[in-house]
């Protein structure tokens, strides 16, 4: 069960009430497995101990918390009421949940809720930021994709002058207007946009900004050049954060694989894992490439890409891979380097 609440000082929070971990029945084992799968999603855990009962299942669960780097608090629930005792039912029993809330505030790392600014550190008030937003077959009907919306809002939050246009109007803008301080483009338009935007103007993409905000940015930077080292028969794991309808213009399943094969001149194989589906046999891959992750949390992205990092497998993300293969990788990431 999931419930959305607001915790003052932290913000919106989703509580996930999982099954107990001491059920040894056939159905119970499936529930326990589901509980362990939930660990890949969460930023903090509340471990509820009933009547001072602490044993092997709890010890194993704490071991999993440490493996996934999940901060946790333990609540010793001694209430004996008509409800099954757990942390969520404390409100139903009219007991004061404030001690748990205060403990959560201390346990949850600030990185989970105090988000790094998407444009923070690379723009200043009154900068002109041009956002290039192609409207193609992959664009959602009647709206912008989330990274584009986030960039608009963050430009405004940083007191910038925000200009939004299609790639077909970019040349006209540079012909008639003063040069902007920054251009952010959809990664798929890198080849065209980089030819129009003068070298003196800073350039990056929505996907790269999102990678900096939520992903393992430093390992993306190190892993992306592996694209030049791929050999015939190498397998790449494509990590998608959501499930969606596949079309002929799909970036992760059609365009990017085709671009990689053309760039390398090799017969590269691809596997795809969407959503939070488990990843098996990570060692079989020469590389892993993560999507922008607009519908995932930073914790979810790191838990997935860490499997590759720990196995010594290079990682990249869609935007960085496209930038590298279109020859603008250094330019598109230069603004993030100190």
What's the gist of this structure?
The protein is of the alpha/beta class and 338 residues long. It has helices spanning 26-38, 56-67, 89-92, 98-107, 146-157, 170-176, 190-196, 206-214, 217-223, 251-264, 298-310, 318-325, 329-333, and strands spanning 2-7, 11-16, 45-50, 72-77, 128-132, 161-165, 182-185, 202-205, 235-240, 269-274, 287-290, 315-317.
Record the SSE blueprint.
Blueprint: E1 2-7, E2 11-16, H1 26-38, E3 45-50, H2 56-67, E4 72-77, H3 89-92, H4 98-107, E5 128-132, H5 146-157, E6 161-165, H6 170-176, E7 182-185, H7 190-196, E8 202-205, H8 206-214, H9 217-223, E9 235-240, H10 251-264, E10 269-274, E11 287-290, H11 298-310, E12 315-317, H12 318-325, H13 329-333
Parallel strand pairs: 3-4, 5-6, 5-7, 7-8, 9-10, 9-11, 11-12
Antiparallel strand pairs: 1-2
Helix pairs in contact: 10-12
How many DSSP helices? 13
Provide the succession of SSEs: EEHEHEHHEHEHEHEHHEHEEHEHH
Average pLDDT works out at 84
Give the strand tally: 12
- The amount of helix comes to 25-40%
Explain the overall architecture.
- The chain has 338 residues and is an alpha/beta fold.
- 36% of the residues lie in helices and 18% in strands.
- It has 13 helices and twelve strands.
- It has helices at 26-38, 56-67, 89-92, 98-107, 146-157, 170-176, 190-196, 206-214, 217-223, 251-264, 298-310, 318-325, 329-333, and strands at 2-7, 11-16, 45-50, 72-77, 128-132, 161-165, 182-185, 202-205, 235-240, 269-274, 287-290, 315-317.
- The chain has a four-stranded parallel beta sheet, with helices on both faces.
- α5 (146-157) links the parallel β5 (128-132) and β6.
- The radius of gyration is 23 Å and the shape is globular.
- It starts with a strand and ends in a 5-residue tail after the last helix.
- Mean pLDDT is 84; it is low at 79-94.
């Amino acid at each position: 069960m999931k419930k959305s609440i607001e915790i003052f000082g932290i913000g919106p929070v989703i509580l996930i009430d999982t099954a107990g971990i001491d059920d040894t029945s056939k159905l119970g084992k499936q529930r326990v497995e589901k509980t362990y799968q939930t660990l890949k999603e969460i930023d903090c855990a509340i471990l509820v101990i009933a009547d001072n009962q602490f044993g092997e299942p709890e010890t194993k669960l704490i071991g999993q918390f440490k493996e996934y780097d999940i901060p946790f608090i333990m609540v010793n629930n001694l209430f004996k009421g008509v409800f099954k005792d757990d942390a969520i039912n404390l409100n139903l029993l009219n007991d004061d949940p404030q001690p748990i809330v205060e403990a959560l505030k201390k346990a949850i790392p600030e990185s989970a809720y105090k988000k790094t600014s998407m444009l923070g550190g690379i723009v200043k008030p009154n900068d002109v930021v041009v956002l290039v937003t192609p409207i193609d077959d992959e664009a959602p009907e009647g709206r912008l994709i989330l990274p584009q919306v986030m960039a608009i809002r963050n430009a405004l939050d940083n007191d910038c002058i925000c200009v939004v246009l299609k790639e077909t109007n970019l040349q006209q803008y540079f012909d008639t207007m003063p040069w902007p301080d920054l251009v952010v483009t959809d990664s798929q338009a890198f080849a065209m946009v980089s030819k129009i935007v003068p070298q003196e103007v800073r350039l990056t993409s929505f996907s790269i900004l999102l990678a900096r905000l939520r992903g393992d940015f430093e390992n993306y930077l190190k892993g992306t050049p592996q694209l030049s080292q791929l050999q015939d028969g190498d397998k790449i794991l494509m990590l998608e954060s959501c499930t969606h309808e596949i079309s002929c213009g799909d970036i992760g399943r059609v365009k990017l694989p085709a671009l990689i094969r053309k760039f390398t001149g090799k017969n590269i194989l691809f596997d795809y894992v969407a959503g939070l589906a488990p990843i098996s046999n990570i060692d079989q891959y020469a590389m892993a490439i993560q999507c922008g992750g607009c519908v995932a949390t930073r914790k979810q992205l790191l838990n997935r890409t860490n499997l590759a990092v720990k196995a010594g497998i290079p990682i990249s993300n869609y935007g960085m891979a496209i930038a590298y293969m279109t020859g603008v990788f250094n330019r598109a990431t230069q603004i993030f380097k100190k």
